Amino acid sequence: MDHTLSTERIPHVLTEILPADRNKSSFVLNVYSAPKERRDYFGRLFTCALKEAKERLIILVAFNAAHPTWGYQTQNPKGRRLALTIGQQGLTILTDPTQPTRVGTV
């Protein structure tokens, strides 16, 4: 079941996965932030998704934001803001920084 977080302009889809027994749903938030969207702030999006999902939320992303935490040698302002937001929201990053998802000029 898809949910809309109407306060957000960042492209995303929040999908609720309903178990057969309808006990505790899980949610998947899929987010895309284009490289040109350098000012995107994810805090409000994460807050809205966490409020909807309670504690059962997986966030899948293409942030186009550089930060050493997820494998870049440098960071950009978008990556710095994202890393700070992840920490403030108490989220856990599941990635292997030795295997970045993109190797390029960023």
Short description:
The protein is of the alpha+beta class and 106 residues long. Helices cover 23% and strands 20% of the residues.
Written description of the protein model:
There is one protein chain. The chain has a 4-stranded mixed beta sheet with strand order 1-2-3-4, covered by helices on one side. It has one domain: 4-Layer Sandwich (Deoxyribonuclease I, Chain A), CATH 3.60.10. The termini are far apart. The protein is α+β, with helices and mostly antiparallel strands. The protein contains 2 helices and 4 strands. β1 and β2 form a beta hairpin. The model has no long low-confidence stretch (mean pLDDT 86).
Q: What is the fold's blueprint, element by element?
A:
Blueprint: E1 2-3, E2 12-17, E3 26-32, H1 43-53, E4 57-62, H2 77-89
Parallel strand pairs: 3-4
Antiparallel strand pairs: 1-2, 2-3
